[in-house]
From TrEMBL:
CDD domains reported in the protein's UniProt record: PhnB_like
Domain called Glyoxalase/fosfomycin resistance/dioxygenase: residue spans: 4-130
Taxonomic path: Bacteria, Bacillati, Actinomycetota, Actinomycetes, Kitasatosporales
Domain of life (superkingdom): Bacteria
SUPFAM superfamilies, per database record: Glyoxalase/Bleomycin resistance protein/Dihydroxybiphenyl dioxygenase (SSF54593)
Region feature Disordered, mapped onto this chain: 60-82
Parts forming coiled coils: none
Entry protein name: VOC family protein
C-alpha cells in the first residue's frame, strides 16, 4: 500500500452521524470502529467512534473519531493530518522530521489494534498522526 496523507477530523461525541453525513455527501465506503471494538466495551466511550474512514469513488479519504472522554474538544484544532501506510522506513522518517522541535503527545509505538501509531504537533502547531500498518515496531 502506498503512503497516504489525508485530513483526520476530531469530534466531541458525534463522529458517527458526521461521518455518515459525509458518506451521503461524497458517496463511497465508510468503515466505523468503536472504542468497544478495541477492548473498551465497559466504558462510556464503548459506542463512540475510535476510528472512522470514508473512501470515495473520487479518490478522497476522510478520517474521523470522537475525542476520548476527558480530553475535551479543542476549539481551534478539531483536525489532524494523517499519514498512513505500510512503508515503515518512509513513515518513520516523516515522523522524525515532523516531531523534531515539536511536541509528541503519543509516542510512535505499537498500539492495541496492532499497528505502530504516534501523534505529535509540529513546531508550527499542526497536529499529525502517523500509522504504520503491519509494522513490527
Amino acid at each position: 500500500m502506498a503512503s497516504r496523507l489525508n485530513p483526520y477530523l476530531t469530534f466531541a461525541g458525534d463522529a458517527r452521524p458526521a461521518m455518515e453525513f459525509y458518506k451521503e455527501v461524497f458517496g463511497g465506503t465508510l468503515v466505523l470502529n468503536s472504542y468497544g471494538d478495541f477492548g473498551q466495551k465497559d466504558t462510556p466511550m464503548a459506542d463512540k467512534i475510535m476510528h472512522g474512514m470514508l473512501e470515495t469513488p473520487s479518490g478522497f479519504t476522510l478520517m474521523g473519531a470522537d475525542n476520548p472522554e476527558g480530553t475535551g474538544k479543542q476549539a481551534e484544532n478539531n483536525f489532524s493530518v494523517s499519514l498512513s501506510g505500510d512503508d515503515d522506513a518512509e513513515l518513520r522518517g516523516y515522523w522524525e522530521k515532523l516531531s523534531e522541535g515539536g511536541q509528541v503527545s503519543v509516542p510512535l509505538e505499537k498500539q492495541m489494534w496492532g499497528d505502530v501509531f504516534g501523534m505529535c504537533t509540529d513546531r508550527f502547531g499542526v497536529p499529525w498522526m502517523v500509522n504504520i500498518s503491519g509494522s513490527e515496531g
